[in-house]
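This part of the workshop introduces the protein records we will be handling. Backbone structure tokens are a discrete shorthand for how the chain folds in space. Once this layout is familiar, the rest of the handout is easier to follow. The record below serves as our worked example for the rest of this section.
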Amino acid sequence: MELAKNIAVAPGIQVIVRDWLNANHVLIRGNAESVVIDTGYGAHAQQTLALICAEDALGSRRLDRVVNTHCHSDHMGGNAALARAFGCPVSLPEYAARLVDAWDTRELLLDYADQQAERFSYADTIAANDRLRLGDLEWQALAAPGHDMTALMFYQPEHRVLVSGDALWERGFGLIEPVDRLEERLAAQRATLERIDELEIAAVIPGHGAPFRAADKALAEAFRRLAAYEADPLKLARHCLKSFFMFALLARRSMKRRELPGYFERVLCYREYNAQFFRRPAGELAEMVTGELLRSGAVIEHDGTLAPASS
């Protein structure tokens, strides 16, 4: 199990900080119920279950509800395992439900990006601007399109806590796909950041990384990155391919460099991005992506095998 940190953010609100393969788990404990927001990657579901059941998390309590900010594999991957373990319902963002109903592996970034998740059932949906009770606290659901056009954030006004999912991290936000509806996605991400900027925030719980309090500083960095992507879609495409590959490498732990041309030809996201932006042989595309990751220090190579520098 990777080293995870359990951090109290406000009374009744804590976060189990994971890594880049597994989204953080936001644990909300009240007298009436215990809720977890986002459940990590499916291959690590048993680790997720152990972390959530640990003495400094749920302990002897039951989990009464699972909620998702959005339905990408690193946020919904543990849904099925937790629902089985606790018999608890799952609540999804309203517009994500149709993707889960159809199990749309393209829009859910599953087969499309060489990611996996176990199919699950959900009990109900949450719409933007809904007010809902999680634990003993009242929360507001806010639309957070951009990284995922169906995503929600959750804001707790009493403690001024924002569960931002992948709409805002301390240094950026989740990838914006440039192959389809790019202008719409970029505009949506900008609107989401502007909506966050309107809130009174004491703490942000992001989908990845530790919770932070300097929301204004994080927003400034997010707007800077967004402007760079708006000015240069090719830069965004390269960022997305590196993100897809790093996720796959974290999941697999290692990959043979000689096998990458075939892998980049086989996995649809690389073929689509290559056709639209790069128009290179698959081997050259693989060298471009892995070369940049090796030079940045995110990936290491030993005897022709690539691995994450840290996992």
Q: What stands out?
A: The longest strand covers residues 137-143. The first helix runs from residue 45 to 53. The chain has two domains: 5-231, 234-308.
